[in-house]
Amino acid sequence: MIRNVFGAVLAVLGAAAVLLGVFQDWYGSRTGRSFRITQLFTDVGITGDKAALLNGLFLVMLVAAVIAALALVARSGWLALLAAVLVLGFTILWMVRQYQIADSLTFGEGGLGWGWASTMIGGVLLLLSAAAMFGAGGAAAGHGRHARRRPGRHEEPEPGHGEVVEGPWDRGEAPPPRHHPGEGEGGRGRDAA
Known about the structure:
Strand order of the largest sheet: 1-2
Keywords: Membrane, Transmembrane, Transmembrane helix
Number of helices: 4
Number of strands: 2
Oligomer: single chain
Transmembrane segments: 52-73, 78-96, 116-141
Radius of gyration: 31 Å
Strand content: under 5%
Region (Disordered): 143-193
């Protein structure tokens, strides 16, 4: 339960950091949303062309934030992991392409800005959220296994039922004697005189 809450908080913070980061400076005075997605995959690389809102990096980060929201609803570590991979993958790819153009990646004026850092931090938070959600699933499964196994209980379920049956032997009493076919009262056979 605590891991699920912790994972949810991390996912919300991560998604918020990612979306805010896209509207801040990534390199020089250019915001993250002004970089076109296609520039990351062409031979030309990053150019001065500005992107529209839905053909720039904002679209990728928006999709990642929506996936993170779905991860919260479904309590899915896999969805949180997918959101983290999208954010970190595209941000790192952007860094590689920017380095090819600028020949350096330095912090400060004219270099890397806080928007890039915010997006990277958001991606790491989403990754930690996925780890917390995976841990919560394993802890819940383990708790369920331990809850079913109690010492002193007979664990064979009745036919058609998945319940644990408690018999007299669980209370320290001796099990009832078994009668075999062909035996009458007192355990003697029919042929006994």
